[in-house]
Amino acid sequence: MSEHELRVAKIRNGTVIDHVTAGQALNVLAVLGIDGDGGLGVSIGMNVPSDKLGTKDVVKVEGRELSQGEVDIISLLAPEATVNIVREYEVVEKNRVERPARVVGLLSCPNHNCITNADEPVDSAFAVVDDGVRCEYCGEIVREGIGDHLAVD
Amino acid sequence: MRHDNLLSAGQLSREDIEAVLDRAAEVAADPGRVAERQAGRLLALCFFEPSTRTKMSFDTAIKRLGGDTVDMGTVESSSVKKGESLADTVRVIEGYADGIVLRHPSEGAAKLASEFVDVPVVNAGDGAGQHPSQTLLDLYTMRENAGLDDLTVGIMGDLKYGRTVHSLAEALTNFDARMHFVSPESLKLPRGVQFDLHEAGARLREHTDLEAVLPDLDVLYVTRIQRERFPDENEYQQVAGEYRIDADTLDRARDDFTVMHPLPRVDEIAPDVDPTEQAAYFEQAHNGVPVRMALLDELLGGDDGGAGR
Ligand SMILES: [Zn+2]
User: Which is a Gene Ontology cellular component entry for this protein (chain A) (predicted)?
Assistant: First the structure.
């Protein structure tokens, strides 16, 4: 087993986000605001064979647990994802993500003419609908490519 | 109507709509009876986009109820030009007036404004979003001319950016109405509106040509296709020409056909339609006053002579 595989396989303390829809790993990192600058140990597996999904992505982050808001957005990008909390190399908690009813302040509206994109003191707000999310201000619906609209700096 | 604001047509139930229309009919029949209803009340007119008729219509409506208006004036001469946020503007204006009528170029502006103030906010047009007070007068006119039951309505023109269309279509889902949407491919109803219509169980069909559905229609609601929606003048001319009606169009429609338009029109309805019995668009514009009187009376509440809300 190479050192690289070993590193992907185990983290000591942190979070493993497994069963991520193939192709969404980098968006998951974007949701977490991880760009490599922060010094966190991060491992990514992309297009890893999966019994359940055919192929999947896996994201492992050393020394970091997720907020509810982050889990909410991940649920939209990767509805099948599981979030595993690891302490001393052991998975101490394993949770399936659940789609929230709405997400506030986490996505930006793709409608450039939406008031939430003007310089106003409000957070964006999206209702989660059957097959996507919907801006509560302008009604714009986002189905594909939710990861392209993350409200991250 | 148990609402603090009128932001979109989707918030209105059939009962809400009928209450306003019934009240508007009473007001129209005897305007003198409500001449003091809103005495002492001030309505702020905040128009961030130029408008003459909607603004005048609200201005007239509140004055005929005994109230008055304060007008923000044009954006060019206001602090908005200096970069003030809408949230700040309405919070200041809230201190001057008992209600705010807002027109703004961005979708969702009225909802945002309503979150920052305690006085009622009426959305008088938010970008390509909604224009629900227009819808109430449209429905009033439709009810007078064709009734709102077992109705077949054609809605033609710019369905993508047409806020009057979005509001009207959503409101019609409360009634026994079949809707035919007629537009060029590039100006079809936006996804968000389609979503609402399907959620509401609307019976609708989309067409690129009026002729096939024309004989079925009780009402045709025509809207303007704006030049700026097209990159190219020739393309605009060609498309706009296909969605124009004239007196010949009426010959191919039912005898009791009604033509409506939110105005202003350019040339999508030929002048030879104006003197016909089918033309209802000037009557429609006039209905704006009693309907907005009824609406403002509902939203501003009581006949306590303006002594607080
Ligand atoms: Zn929006």
Answer: aspartate carbamoyltransferase complex
